[in-house]
User: What shape does this take?
Amino acid sequence: MTEAFERIRGHDFHPLQPDRRTFTVDRTLGVPGVADPHDRDGRVRSLALRDLVGLALHDAASVAAGLTDDDVNVRCLAAAALGVARAMEAREALERAVADDPEPIVRSYAAIALGEMGSEASVPWLRTRAAAEADPDVVHQLELALAQVASGRWASDAQRDAFLALRDDDFGRVREGEAAPDFALDDTAGGRWRLHEGLGRWQVLIWIFADWCPVCHREFAELMELRADFERHDVRLATLEAHDTWRGRLMVGREVEPTLWGSRQWFREAYTQRIWWPHVLDRAGAVGARYGTEPMTFAVHGEFVNRPTTVIVDPEGVVRLAYAGSFWGDRPSIAQTLDMIRTHDFAFVHPQRLAPARP
Assistant: This one.
């Protein structure tokens, strides 16, 4: 087996919840999230995924062998790597993982991989499987896989290259009072967004989760409602997502309208008309890692995600707020973020923030 698999097996990850098995729980507190801001789970997963993507490009069989490993993290990351690498020769192994793996999170990642590799041969099978699947998070990923295959926007070379370029020293925590590291990333409209082009203005960076996140959609609605306030205070804002192009476009209403398990109405028309800010693709989470989001820290709804992170940069390019949450709902609201800029008071702790257990 590969060295990456051994590193995954050797790391003590926070466990999945006993019932749904699609949320991470803090091993000490027993509640969803990861309290310790210096926890290494996300770093271990991200760097292992980098190595598995590289291996899958020339030895997909070795990576596909991880789909039957006893370790759930090995199975998840093997599936994710095969999708990013578009390792079509692993299609049948991924289909078996979707059908047979006991863990919903593994079935989700195998479904995502089939969509990312553009597996047209899997379409009839995916339709049948979506009808048979019991877990709503997995059903959602199966529906998205079908839509992504049909779209022709499969895993991009840019996503692959972003993972291959990940380095251990990408992972750090930008502290308040320090200069904000510059970066340039693609957005979902085909443009390029660079932080330092906004020097001279207040800037806000908001890392979100994914299309299935009701908290993220509420934040988007609040951004739409407060557009005039942001413009009046000359604030330049971007939301960022640690996904490839198709998933990013899905979030802003530029792709299909899937049936979300928790949604009473969809947002496509409203989003295409009312989103006024750029939605930026932090494809492997490398920029987020530098700012403290710790990509792939914990699972939410069957997918490993970054910490919910809000960063405020002042007109001189200095970080005034670098807040990385401890669970899925832990960050300042959009209105609170704008109030910090208005008042220059950047003290914030979410009232439900998880506190690491004392040793």
